[in-house]
Every structure is written in C-alpha cells, then in structure tokens.
C-alpha cells in the first residue's frame, strides 16, 4: 500500500488529487487561475469541501475561463449567489470576478500569469524536506511576499495562508512529506 502525506484521508477523490495533482508544477495560466479561484473559495473551509464541489465550480464558472469571468455582468453574479453547488459567499464570488480581471492585467504586464507567479521561485519548485505534520508551515516569508504583492495589485482573498496553499497545489513548493511515495527522490 502506498504511503501518502498525513492530510490524505481514505476518500478516493482526495487520494486521486494528492497522487495526480497536488505538488505537480503548473505553468498553464488557465489551470493557475482555476487553482487561484478554488483556493480563494477554500479560505476558512476544508479542501475536501472544495474538491467535492470542484465540478460544480467548473460548471458555474464557465470551466474557469477567466476571460469570461472577468466580464460577468451583475446578473451572472446574482445567479452565482443562488447556485447551491458552490460556496455562496458574496465576497468570494465577487472576488472571483475581480481576480479574473486582475489576472488579465498581470498577464499583460508579464506576458503570462505563470511568468509572474513563477518568477518568485526562479521558475522551479522549492523542494522542502518535511518529515511530519508539525514541520509543514501554513505560511512562509515567500507566501507573505506574494500575498502582499497580489493585495497591492487589488486581488482579494489572497492572504498568506491561501497563497501558501496555492503554492503547494500548483507545485511552486513540493511539500510531500519525506515518507510519502510522491516525495522526489
């Protein structure tokens, strides 16, 4: 039996996410936006809650097409607040729209969001060597720095904890514990 990171439950969905996505470097802007949106909705909730609703989010938010989301009219915002398949937090729904607009602004400035976000790690994942749950931080100086920069640009729900979780999800940091079968050897 494969040994996984401490946070993985016996949920097949969680195991598949851990085994195939979490910590894998993502350089594609569409996928980066998807994770940014999902992580901002996750703030204050468990990740499994978001994973269980991921396909609902995909349907509600036009397959995470940030170009479409950036142009959502008030009527779409209101309909999202009625969608029981997603997290119906007014501020988070509004932030998805605002963040899509700002995501496009960052693309214009840096050529892609990927160029911008990966510049913080020189384009390579940071491989950590955490042995147990207590070793894995919720934030780091780097997540603090990225969070501050994104907030300065107007992004919402991008506190340091959200950004560190985003960094883990998109492989900017590899936080698989050393006893996990996904830990790079």
From TrEMBL:
Entry's Gene Ontology BP terms: base-excision repair
Lineage per the UniProt record: Bacteria, Pseudomonadati, Bacteroidota, Flavobacteriia, Flavobacteriales
InterPro entries: Adenine_glyco, DNA-3mA_glycosylase, DNA_glycosylase, Tag
Gene3D superfamilies linked: Hypothetical protein, domain 2
Organism of derivation: Polaribacter porphyrae
Domain of life: Bacteria
EC number: 3.2.2.20
Protein name in UniProt: DNA-3-methyladenine glycosylase I
PANTHER family: DNA-3-METHYLADENINE GLYCOSYLASE 1 (PTHR30037), DNA-3-METHYLADENINE GLYCOSYLASE I (PTHR30037:SF4)
